[in-house]
Amino acid sequence: MTLSTNPLREGLPRERMPEPATLVIFGATGDLTRRKLIPALYRLFRQRQLPPGFRVVGVGRTEMNDPDFAALALLAIAPAGREGGDEFAALFRYVTGDFSDPGT
Fold this sequence. Notes:
- The chain is α/β, with parallel strands linked by helices.
- It contains three helices and three strands; from the N terminus they run βαβααβ.
- Strands 1-2-3 form a three-stranded parallel beta sheet.
- It is globular.
- The mean pLDDT is 88.
């Protein structure tokens, strides 16, 4: 029996997509973010595995704005190519703050 003939799946959507989400990365300007997290998110983006409305909010002590953080994301994916780069970069926002400050 295949999934398409499974009577228990009748009337259910074929693909499940997660609800919109926001990923908050603390220490967003660090090496781990550039080398691992952003490239992994880009792969999910290219495979259309990120839900509609997905956003990334970076938090760090470095003075930066949204366009600067988006540029950092584009640099991080440069080895993989830039297909859809502008759409991918639009997912990124940045907040400057100190982790010990509850107001951040």
